[in-house]
Amino acid sequence: MLLCLFQTSANAYLFQGLRKGSITGASSQTILAIAADSVLVFLQRMYWVVSNLAHFGRMQSLGFGAYFEKFVAGVDMVLLLGCVYLMRNPPTKSKQRHTGMHDHEEEDDFGKKATRELWHAVRGYSVSPPAWLHYSVVYAVGFAVAFLTAWASSAFSFSALSTWAYQRPTAMLAIMDNSLRGLALMPQLHMSRKSGLIAPGLAVWMALMGVTNIMEVTEDGIAWNTLCYLAGDAFSIALVADFLYLFVRSRLRGQAVVEIPTFSEV
Hints:
two-stranded antiparallel sheet
C-alpha cells in the first residue's frame, strides 16, 4: 500500500507541476508511456474483481486494504491521463516552455532516426513516415521484452505460455507493466542527455520515480518464481541509478538543476 501511495503522490506532483508550469522539459513519450503503464496496472488490479462480478454476480472479499490499493491505482491512472492532456494542451502561462520555444527545450526525438531508417528501408522514400512513428518504439520493445520474458519463464514452450496466459492473464499484464515502466524513462533520459541539464521540478519527479522502482523490488522480494516480474524493475533501476547519483550530488552541492554529461562528453 505504501508503494501505491508514494507513486501516486509522485504523479500528483507531476500533474501539479505541469498544470502550474513549474515542471518543464518533460518528454511526451515518457509521460504517455507511464500513463499507458498505469492503465495496465489498473486493469491488472481490477480484472478478477470484474471477472467475479460478471461470472458470479458478487464482489471478492478482499478487505479494505486491497480495495483501497485498487482505488489508489485508479487515482494514479486519472492523474497520469491528466498529465498527457496537459502535455498536449499546456496552460497558457507555460505554453512557451512546452512548445519548443524555451531556451533549454529539446526535441523529443527518441527512436526517430531508427524508425525513419526502418520505414524508408521497407516503404522507400516515396511515402513519408508518420510524425508519431518514433513514439511506437517504447511499446514495440516493451512488448518484445515482455513476450521473451514470459516465454523464457515457460521454458520456451508456446503451449505452456498460452496455458499460463489463459489461466493467469493478470500475470501477463504484470510482466508487460514491468517492461513498459522500465523502458518509459528512456525518452526522458535521452532528452536530458542531449540538453545536459534537468530542470528542478522535473528532476524531483524523476528522482521520485527512481525511488519508486527501488521500492517495487523491495516490496516484491527476490525469489526464483518472481524473476520474470523483476526483469523490468531491474532495468528501471539500472536506467535511473546514474541519475539518482547525479541528483543527490547536485542537492549536496546546493544546486537545484541537475547537470548530466551530454552525448559529446560521454
